[in-house]
TrEMBL record, chains A, B, C, D:
InterPro entries: dCTP_Pyrophosphatase (IPR052555), DCTPP (IPR025984). Gene3D superfamilies: MazG-like (1.10.287.1080). SUPFAM superfamilies: all-alpha NTP pyrophosphatases. It holds the Pfam family MazG-like. One of its GO terms (biological process) is nucleoside triphosphate catabolic process. It comes from Labedella gwakjiensis. This is Nucleotide pyrophosphohydrolase. It comes from the Bacteria. Keywords: Hydrolase.
Length: 106, 106, 106, 106
């Protein structure tokens, strides 16, 4: 599966509305938390949630994440891979297998 | 810029640790909120934050977002684009230009 | 049970450290979200959490809530009661009994 | 100022709706994060927010905090005071004065 790059359309959307002025890293960080909570709200009282709504709310979190990545000159997929090498070292497969404990309790 | 697809490595990382059992949509939604708040913490008392830390915390949010997208069979870039067409209709450029108001106050 | 008023000690704690300068409403709102996520983290992978830790993290959320209430000249118990009368009207007992639906779906 | 105890009315409100079944500690922790983000949303693009809305959203966070405290048999004011003695030790006034650094960087 190839990953569709939404960045050109995201940037055009922001430019057409002159919204870059609001998109400071601090404001984008707040926005990510706010949208993450709207996603969480779908699971507030139950383990199950309407999947169409999950897609929409997850899209909102991802949108602000991509905008913040763009703002700091980073590429989302690369950020994930860079962090993954750190996490691999913190959670060695043989120690972490089948456990949800934090790395300092493995 | 082409977007690196981190999904094959993410899936391998999870499989090697047998962690898919913990990654229910509800748990991933909680995880996204938790990591979003760690990102926000970098801006708790100031508009400025250490960029290396921003990259790491943003990577954590993105990681759980990609895992949730994968779990529901969605592709992150496509989710963003699907939502963007809805948002375009809610925030017409000529009305929303230069304003941070919610769509129902434009 | 009478409610202990922690405000005099909270105010003294903040004054001794000259921290009121950081406690703008916006920063306190961020702090409440950050601490709320630390509480949530105790339930990230399980319905059960260590109760001593729940007490500590809940205390952190409450502390910032009380500081924000104080900052805007409000009394926490009174805020709750004022909102409760609004919520009573939105969720009439006979309609809402035993249901976790939002008021617009009752 | 004496603190009004909202607990008797809160308990009656929940009982009349038979909602205690939904109020597990895990669900209340999610609810606190969700409401905290609605408070944060008032400050999403600006340092200033409508004060009537701040009071309402802060009330929602406080309500779930009081319900969780009640659920674990704790008293909100006492929780704050218990935690405050720990925080006093971590942030000695002479070291922390006028600084927003974390305790491990003082």
């Amino acid at each position: 599966m190839s990953t569709e790059d939404p960045l050109p359309q995201l940037r055009a959307f922001v430019d057409e509305r002159d919204w870059a002025q609001f998109h400071t890293p601090a404001n984008l960080a707040k926005s990510i938390s706010i949208e993450a909570a709207e996603l969480l709200e779908l699971f507030q009282w139950s383990e199950d949630a309407d999947e169409a709504k999950v897609r929409e709310e997850l899209a909102d979190v991802l949108t602000y994440c991509f905008l913040l990545a763009d703002r700091i000159g980073a590429e989302p997929g690369q950020l994930i891979l860079d962090k993954l090498s750190l996490t691999r070292a913190k959670y060695p497969a043989e120690k972490a297998r089948g456990r949800s404990d934090k790395y300092d309790r493995l």
